Amino acid sequence: MEGAHSPPHPLDLLSIKRTRLRRFLGMGWAVMNDVVFRLPPGRWLHRRLRHGLEFTSIDVPLARGGAGLDLLDVVLLSDLHAGLFMTPEDLRGLFQRVAALHPDLVCLVGDLISTRLSELSFFEEALRELEPPLGIFAVPGNHDYFRPWEIGLWIERLRAQGVTVLVNEGVRLERDGAGIWLGGVDDQTEGRPDVRAALEGRREGEPVLLLSHHPDVFVQAAEHGVDLQLSGHTHAGQVRLFGWAPMTHTEHGYIEGLHTREASQLYVGRGVGVTTVPIRIGTLGEVALLRLRTR
């Protein structure tokens, strides 16, 4: 019949249902955070999370790279989840502690927000505390796609705050005459990561540092000869009972720490914040300082 509308495609219906579910969950988590946070148990949980944050330091040897890259300090921050028991004051205090480490480079590897784009405003004061000489870089995580139609604004607002966002692209960084290629990919679960595109422009023999929220991208990264990948996403399980985590969010066992595959290395941070429930059991939040060694 002329003028009649065709029925929605099944995939379109699925997308609509997912969008409605996201909105419902987003409102639910926001209410839980706003209410529970103000109650005595919520304030206790908040203090416990903040005091349970661990700063770790690890030397990571690279098989290639000039002498100028030796002792280059990289801070890995993942899964900050601003908004869910993570206030602007928390972030500012955290970034002040990070600044005291005097890192050369700060990498934010996804899930900066919990459910709302407005939570990026929590970073405005905190980011002013950081002045790493090689810059602040970020890639999106699945929670940054919580409202996928806003991901463009997510990128724009971070860039307006002085953060370089890398989505399937890369840049060359130099220190003392030595270069390293820094690439970043889209989120694996909500976006379309393209490792090849993120490495386009690197020079032959140049060391490569890749940022990916999801650690399982490491399988492709190793195939492309990435020297070191930095990831998060897993929260190290967040809740672990006798060392066992009911949910790990990785199909390859990349739950936390340093992993190797062929000539490539992966470091998975335990994350700073929490998601779904404001608790950690059997694992602490983490800020990781990785010192690259080329000698």
Explain the overall architecture.
This protein is an alpha/beta fold. It has one domain: Purple Acid Phosphatase, chain A, domain 2 (4-Layer Sandwich), CATH 3.60.21.10. The N terminus is likely disordered.
List keywords for this structure.
295 residues; alpha/beta; Purple Acid Phosphatase, chain A, domain 2; 6-stranded mixed beta sheet; globular; disordered N terminus
Secondary structure tally, helices? 7
Radius of gyration: 20 Å
Termini separation: 74 Å
Helix residue percentage: 25-40%
CATH fold field value: Purple Acid Phosphatase, chain A, domain 2
Biggest pleated-sheet summary:
6 strands, mixed
Kindly state the number of beta strands. 12
CATH architecture label name: 4-Layer Sandwich
Structural class: alpha/beta
Tell me, rounded to a whole number, the average pLDDT.
87
Low-confidence stretches: 1-17
Shape: globular
Strand order of the largest sheet: 1-12-2-3-4-5
Count of the separate structural domains: 1
What is the chains' assembly state? single chain
SSE series: HHEEHEHEHEEEHEHEEEE
- Beta-strand level of the residues, as a percent range? 15-25%
Q: How would you sum up this structure in a few lines?
A:
This protein is of the alpha/beta class. It has one domain (10-293): Purple Acid Phosphatase, chain A, domain 2. The protein contains seven helices and twelve strands.
